[in-house]
Amino acid sequence: MATDVEVPALGESITEGTLANWLKKPGEAVAADEPIAELETDKVSVEVPSPIAGVLTEQLAQAGDTVAVGAVIARVDQSATAAPGAPSPAQAAAASTTNPAGAGETPALREDAELNAPHAPDPDGAPRDDVITTLSPAVRRAVLEYHVDPTSIRGSGKDGRLTKDDVVAAAQGQKSAPVQGGVQAPQAKAPAPESKAPPPGPRPSPGDRHEERVKMTRLRQTIAKRLKEAQNSAAMLTTFNDVDMSAVIDARARYKDLFEKKHGIRLGFMGFFVKACALAAKDVPSVNASIEGDEIVYHDYLDVSVAVSAPKGLVVPVVRNADRMSFAEIEKTIADFGKRAKEGTLTVDEMQGGTFTISNGGVFGSLLSTPIINPPQSAVLGMHRIEERPVVKDGQIVARPMMYLALSYDHRLIDGREAVTFLVRVKEAIEDPTRLLIDL
Question: How many degrees, rounded to 5, is the angle at CA 175 between CA 171 and CA 178?
């Protein structure tokens, strides 16, 4: 008897998602809790697991379809027989239980079963279609663009899955493959030129221009909608200041080795800025507040939404109770968020809430920007790149590593005096980190 596979709960207020791609085909065996499809929601990608071990007999939705929570998208039959050449349900379950990633999980691209012989490339060097269809859209596009064989790449993503970075790194490695024994290591085979005669009619000129239309992902649509709503509802204003990063840079240089040895994580800039914002929010609580109807909600905690770049767009996981965390806890949490954002394994719950946002455009080289508020929050701090600039110190013109800071805020709640005060408190704490220790 077949068992229905339903769209799982996707998080608070999320009622539907888009079926991004199928990880299993009809006729293939699946283990209990093994992912068979990938959904894209407004915030994250979510895997749909099989409720039982068996054979996937039906796919009731296609990639690109919008599916509601609770909708049946597939059926798995416990008594069915797998297609010829495919592992049986028992073999799939056995592979799942021996998976080093954890019981009940089977990697989308297993090192022992799927990365080797079963998925050899086609004779012309192009990856086989049955391999390509199991990859996420971003990875699939990278594979086709760089002409690499995905079956020969070790995935660094969740459960051994390939990421776009894995594909790019493999392509770069092939280009720089060393010559050994007089023979150069094999490189990705470029597609052979077609020998067909050109079609009759005028030939395209080198100046021809082309366009490509790609449907916006749900994440990108949600980002666009929320940013526009923020502009329409909030009375946004941005105030700026600059900060001398000398003290923080010196502190990092002095303690980075000891910090990494003790905590297993590098000491970055974000820990200093999160702590500085927590300190400033005590003096200016409206920056950490929000408007609900005709009421102002003040928070006695600081949940910092940290803007992180992901393959499908910007995501903002939340560092909860950041004001009570140590530098090491903050750095570990942010590093984990960044890693899992690239892998697409952040959960919906990890991106909900947040009372204040920090966005570091400096990692991309931004000198100055006016960040947009993340509703229902009332303020966002924008960090930027550090560069040496001439400044006056004790009557002398000297070079200092300077960073511009930008605080965008909702003027309905936060007055200009409060915004400037908050930014000055952050500046003072960064230029004299001792203030973070003695709560000044």
Answer: 125
